[in-house]
Write a structure and sequence with these properties.
282 residues; mainly alpha; 8 helices; flat
Length: 282
Amino acid sequence: MDAETGTYHIVTRLFDDGHETTADGVLADFDTGISRPTFCIIRPAVDNVYADNSAFGQSVFADAVDAVKSVDNAFDSMNREIDATKVRVFLSDDLIDVDEQGRPKPFGDDSLFIRKLAGNGVESYLQVSAPPIRIDALEKALNIGLAELGDLTGFGQQYFRFDQSAGLKTATEVSADNSAFFRNIQKHENQLRPALEGLLTAVLDCMRVHNGLDAPEDARATVDFDDSIIADTQSEKNMMLAEVGSGVVPRWMYLARFYGMSEADARAATGEDAPTVADEGI
């Protein structure tokens, strides 16, 4: 902000090997002509544990690095378990063809068919090895890692889950099972809303000052987040429509709630005038 002009300036300073310099085509000082900031710092609603009192935020995954590693380790263990428990057939030399030099001829999958070691005391010509796979224990370990990952990132312990039998869930079920996730979303929205509104208002000011947009000087942008996936907006609409139909709620409130209209515009659209002093019995 420039104290003389009352507007924000964009100042560019160039340095070469620690010394300040200039360059052709680079404007050192640009007056935006706007009295409101043309920038904002957008950060999630997460405490910065790396730098105290910092204006900058950190990623929602910053505290969950160990949880990510545990999930990766559990998934890798599942792959190793599948590879280690493959069926293997051990064959006696009597069942293996050899070439002229007496070397066994290659056949089939070398990881499936294996020569039996001589002198192992086993008299059978063929042995099959099929170790049991510990799928339940591995799935439990993976889900523990996923639950911890969801908890540390603010998604809730039920957000990440390895379970094919659960199937798809409705928005109502999602909002019930992920209440922690819903609260975390609202926390981030409260943090992001003023920053986004300031940034969009700066764009509006730039359009008005530099592109001739016909808009009032005090015009501001507003942000209304859509939580339909979590909050099941359609169910809320249906409930409010039923209340409007029964006369419990006036029609203008539906337009104001779900279409972002002001009370005056909503009343004008529905033909419902504001109550007067006489109507209120005062």
